[in-house]
Amino acid sequence: MDTGYVHGYAEPEARRLGDQADTLAELLHAGTAYPAGSRVLEAGCGVGAQTVHLVARSPGAHLTAVDVSAASLAQARKRARTVEFRQADLFDLDGEYDHVFVCFVLEHLPEPEKALAHLRTLLRPGGTITVIEGDHGSAFHHPRSEYAQAAIDCLVRLQADAGGDALIGRRLYPLLTGAGFDGVSVEPRTVYADASRPGLVTGFTRDTFTAMVEGVGETAVARGLATADGWARGVADLHRTGAGDGTFHYTFFKATGRKS
Amino acid sequence: MDTGYVHGYAEPEARRLGDQADTLAELLHAGTAYPAGSRVLEAGCGVGAQTVHLVARSPGAHLTAVDVSAASLAQARKRARTVEFRQADLFDLDGEYDHVFVCFVLEHLPEPEKALAHLRTLLRPGGTITVIEGDHGSAFHHPRSEYAQAAIDCLVRLQADAGGDALIGRRLYPLLTGAGFDGVSVEPRTVYADASRPGLVTGFTRDTFTAMVEGVGETAVARGLATADGWARGVADLHRTGAGDGTFHYTFFKATGRKS
To answer: Do A186 and B192 touch (CB under 8 A)?
Structure first.
């Protein structure tokens, strides 16, 4: 099965997504709580990394979580037992919901605006959508390193080759307005890590971002986008930004919109 | 007089700094208020763009604002009449203060850590420093444009050629700890502008950032860092990010530290 998911489906990847969600939960989920009884759709739940936080923050909502991958859903089911899981392609979804939640999904889709427009058809009038995406163009660090930057650029390129866009965060405003949503509001949610924030250095710089870059190394080298030496140095330099005098910056974008 | 100040000292530049300060005042100054009677030094006050906000937020503090440029001080005096202004080089300063405030200054200095170490000598034990700087590596936008990026890169290069560092924001943590400050804490303060935030599109994307890039155009072309056509297109593309579907992102860094 080739779903074009650049990060792959192996076990370490599932662990990475779990670590990422725990470290970033407060940053990403703050402000998102759905009323008891409301019908919430998580489109593209993957292994359930965000699903558990949706459940924790909206215990009374009725959550339906959908993903195209049966293997991911099997893991998600173990994580969140009270959720209704369903295997389906985003474009095949039907039903009516009060709220839709989409996190780290649009970045992998060739037609994100079309996906948003379809999700809009699933909302009742007055219903809302919440979208969270990263933007790898927001990644910068100290010490600076052309090798680390080249490795990040490789990840962006691989995601583009797979039909996605690792720089999609900056596009959420035009994507949501273009898909017909009203009252669109986008907020940057920034991760900044230095030695005074050891949890973020470990949880984000090392175990989330650097691990994500490391995860595509074999592919990048196999496709001739990087040399083995250059790649190794890039990853080492990313790790180096987690040392005592290092810093790391990354911006996620959280968008909300309404179906009038 | 060549002080190495890349942005120059002409009138439009003073207006730009004023616009910037007004739009960004809340973002940058939130959390900074000095007790009545405390002795506060603003090192490198320039035309007083930040000075007026320091006065407004700490009306009872005794503020001394210092700059190396007599012309800038003349303008600053008109803006903030209750402040004690003094013309001096940062490294020649003496006296004792409870707090030091430094904003958009270190980015222009060849030895920022040495400057911070000197400022530390001016603090009483237990005194604090607050430092605010930008980082042009945090600038990204939609639509993407290699011409706009090249123009931004020119600005970074010109500032480096003048002995400064337009990418200094990411370095505040190591700079302050290296200069001997304790309890150093750095926060990103992010500007994100899209059509739902027209004040920021005008006040930041257009009148602050794009104006700053435009301001070095003649120099960039004269030094052969850009062609006239390429530069014009880069500036046009930066303006384009302020259109209806455009977005713009920039991160300032605000750091605090203590002299034990």
So the answer is: yes
Cα-based torsion angle of the residue sequence A64, A69, A74, A80 in order, rounded to the nearest 10 degrees? -30
Q: Where in chain A are the domains? A: 11-258
Q: Identify the pLDDT of residue B85.
A: 97
Q: Give the 3-state secondary structure of residue B172.
A: helix
A39 - beta bridge partners? A62
Q: How far apart are the C-alpha atoms of A161 and B169, rounded to whole Å?
A: 33
* Rounded Cα distance, B58 and B69, in Å: 25
DSSP class of residue A61 equals S
Six-digit token string for B218: 């003649």
d(CA A10, CA B26) in angstroms, rounded, equals 46
Query: Which pLDDT does position A1 carry in this prediction?
Result: 36
Q: Which residue of chain B comes nearest to A172, CA vs CA?
A: B247
User: Using CA atoms, how far apart are residues A49 and A104, in angstroms rounded to an integer?
Assistant: 11
Q: How far apart are CA A99 and CA B254, in angstroms?
A: 36
pTM of the full structure: 0.92
- Residue A2: per-residue pLDDT: 42
B131: number of CA atoms within 13 Å, CB side?
A: 32
What ipTM describes this predicted complex?
0.91
Say whether pLDDT at B204 is over 60. Answer: yes
Nearest Cα residue in chain B from A136? B140
Show the DSSP H helices in chain B as ranges. Answer: 11-29, 51-57, 70-79, 112-121, 146-161, 172-178, 198-200, 211-215, 217-222, 228-240
At the second CATH level, the architecture of B11-258 is 3-Layer(aba) Sandwich (3.40)
Q: Which residues of A155-173 are buried (b: 16+ CB within 10 A; e: fewer)?
A: bbbbbeebebbbbbbbbbb
Q: Which residues of B touch A171 (CB under 8 A)?
A: 142, 247
